[in-house]
Specification:
alpha/beta; three-stranded mixed beta sheet; 22 helices; 50% helix
Length: 640
């Protein structure tokens, strides 16, 4: 028999360790309260007679406790529990110490292998400081802050309690910054009043500073809708033109003045966008990273600054297409800010006024894999007629109406995420569908408890904890010392149930598709029920987490062994995604996944590998047009 240790290692079963542990507990009680050698042998025999190929060390210890109670050794069982808890404290302390020392020595592989898209360099001292604090937070979270039931479920891969490295503090996941309010009404950064910008370039600088300040006081991603910058580009135009008219009144014709004003405006546009791109790629937050921010490129037809916004979006795409240079002077594609481009009827490559910008976006996708694309048409179908930015790359708000009866999205946030491991439920159920649904219900209950831990951790937080969020406009304009509790209720903020491995419990056959939809509807209905019962903004989140897909698969492989087409490949498929190994045409895949996006309104993002299109821009343009008509949200990546 193999024993799975708490850190995931698999070791040979050794009955002497059971004997020694009970004997040590024996020494803590009176002679009459001790277990005899024969009783200890019986406990060992019971465990061995289970004939299991693998057992978790926690399950073995649970059996020991139960058997001691059965033979009425209550005091001994209590001492064994204390012994077990004491050993756990020592072990966890040592694990944390080793993790921190590994960080400093650059030997912590879990953190070092963050991948090319990470905005944190684990070698930097500033980043290590944040990681060290995170390791301490993880330790305290698992030992003291979370119920043992939740911690155990996390360790066994039943669920994943995200961002334990930040749970110690009253901070939240991701948000959609209310940039328009902060620019129009001013804000405060580091105790200094920032007044309304008088020009586009200053607005770009202030935007970068706001993003950095916001990112420093939360752990997840941020987004800004750049349509609020159009106003400041027009301000610059009016200011430039007025100065020219004052200086050259009667000396130059109106046409020449107009031409000079537009040239000067174009120079400021280029400079402002370039400044923002440089700052967002070089500013370091207090988390030891550049801001993980998304710019929402929104050609909103109803915005009165649509003309200016088109100019800004075009320039952002031009500069992203041109790229940046690394320390060696080599051309690189900046990862941040991430770009999300909205497709409307007037720019979906069907002869619209702004198709020229979409053609530029398509060239940029071909070269830089950005921007991602959102279909305004499909999004309006899913979100009560609204179009708005995801919070970061993938987490979506749910529709919410403020007291004035209008929908509100900017200035809202996500409290946190807990994800469920669906393939593990299928493994344990072993083909028994009735058992699958029963187990799913039980594990969803645990996920609910874990999510409520996230919610309760934020209750009572004071506005002074993060003034940029709560007092100065990013989220709200609360008074000093005011609690944020009202912003946690009634669906103003969201709280997300993530899921991994829909493909792991079904396939793309007709029967598999129907079962997958049934599972998705169950998850969706559950979050809706939680929302109705609590008034909290529960949502179903198709989390695109590569690391979690590997973590769950690794745990299940060690626990259940190699299972063909499940644990053997070393990863589970993200959320509702079709497995990359599936031979399915890209358009058919997107149509297939669109059904699942509609059920996953707390977050849904599909991927397209575009390497086959690198030499054919027309094919890529056809794909973008297809996206507008058939699926809400798509991101692009290189073919593996």
């Amino acid at each position: 028999m193999k024993v799975i240790k708490r850190d995931g290692r698999v070791v040979d079963y050794n009955k002497e360790k059971i004997v020694v542990a009970i004997q040590k507990a024996n020494q803590e009680v009176m002679q009459t309260k001790r277990a005899t050698n024969e009783e200890i042998k019986e406990i060992v025999k019971y465990i061995e007679d289970l004939n299991k190929k693998r057992m978790l060390v926690e399950d073995i210890q649970d059996i020991i406790e139960e058997k001691l109670m059965e033979i009425h050794k209550y005091e001994l069982a209590k001492k064994y529990i204390v012994y077990r808890y004491t050993r756990a404290l020592v072990r966890k302390s040592n694990t944390t110490d080793e993790s921190i020392l590994g960080l400093i020595k650059n030997q912590n592989k879990e953190i070092s292998n963050q991948g090319p898209n990470s905005n944190k360099d684990a070698v930097l001292a500033s980043t290590q400081r944040d990681y060290i604090a995170g390791e301490v937070s993880k330790d305290l979270t698992k030992r003291m802050l979370l119920p043992e039931k939740i911690t155990k479920a996390h360790e066994e891969g039943i669920l994943h309690f995200h961002d334990t490295g930040y749970f110690l503090q009253p901070i939240f996941n991701c948000c959609l910054i209310n940039l328009e309010d902060m620019l129009d009404n001013g804000t405060v950064i580091n105790g200094k009043l920032i007044e309304t910008p008088k020009s586009f370039k200053v607005a770009c600088i202030v935007t970068s500073q706001i993003i950095a300040a916001v990112a420093s006081n939360q752990y997840g991603e941020q987004s800004v809708d750049i349509k609020c910058l159009g106003k400041y580009l027009r301000k610059s135009y009016i200011k430039l033109k007025n100065k020219l008219e004052e200086k050259y009144n009667g000396k130059l014709s109106d046409d020449i003045i107009e031409d000079i004003a537009n040239q000067s405006l174009q120079a400021e546009l280029i400079s402002g966008v370039q400044t923002m791109q440089y700052q967002l790629n070089t500013l370091m937050t207090t988390n030891g990273k550049v801001p993980n921010v998304t710019l929402f490129l929104n050609l909103d037809e109803e915005n009165k600054y649509l003309k200016e916004n088109a100019m800004i979006i075009e320039e952002i795409l031009k500069q992203r297409y041109d790229g940046m240079k690394n320390e060696k002077g080599e051309d690189v594609s900046p990862v941040f800010p991430k770009l999300v481009y909205v497709l409307y009827e007037h720019n979906c490559l069907k002869g619209g006024k702004y198709d020229y910008i979409t053609k530029l976006a398509t060239k940029c996708i071909q070269k830089r894999l950005q921007p991602s694309c959102i279909s305004a048409k499909k999004m309006r179908e899913n979100y009560d007629g609204n179009v708005f930015s995801p919070m970061g790359s993938s987490n979506f708000l749910l529709p919410f109406k403020s007291k004035d009866g209008n929908y509100k999205f900017e200035g809202r946030f996500n409290q946190g995420v807990v994800s469920i491991n669906l393939p593990q439920i299928a493994i344990v159920s072993d083909g028994d569908e009735e058992k699958f649904w029963k187990l799913l219900d039980e594990r969803l209950d645990i996920c609910y408890e874990a999510l409520m831990c996230r919610h309760y951790a934020l209750i009572g937080t004071l506005s002074d904890t993060s003034p940029i969020h709560w007092k100065y406009g990013a989220i709200a304009r609360l008074k000093s010392g005011q609690k944020i509790d009202e912003l946690l209720k009634d669906g103003y903020s969201t709280i997300s149930l993530g899921y991994i491995g829909i493909y792991g419990v079904s396939h793309t056959t007709s029967e598999g598709h129907d079962f997958a939809i049934k599972v998705m509807k169950k998850l969706e209905e559950t979050t809706k029920r939680w929302k109705k019962e609590t008034g909290l903004g529960f949502g179903l989140y198709g989390i695109p987490s590569k690391s979690l897909s590997y973590r769950f698969a690794k745990i299940d492989k060690e626990r259940f062994g190699i299972i063909s087409d499940v644990t053997d490949k070393g990863y589970y498929t993200n959320s509702y995604h079709v497995d990359d190994r599936e031979k399915m045409d890209v358009l058919k895949r997107l149509s297939f996944e669109n059904e699942f996006q509609k059920l996953s309104l707390g977050g849904a993002l599909s991927y397209v590998e575009i390497s086959d299109m690198n030499s054919n821009l027309n094919d890529l343009e056809k794909l973008v047009e297809f996206i507008y008509n058939n699926i809400q949200y798509v991101e692009f990546k290189h073919k593996k």
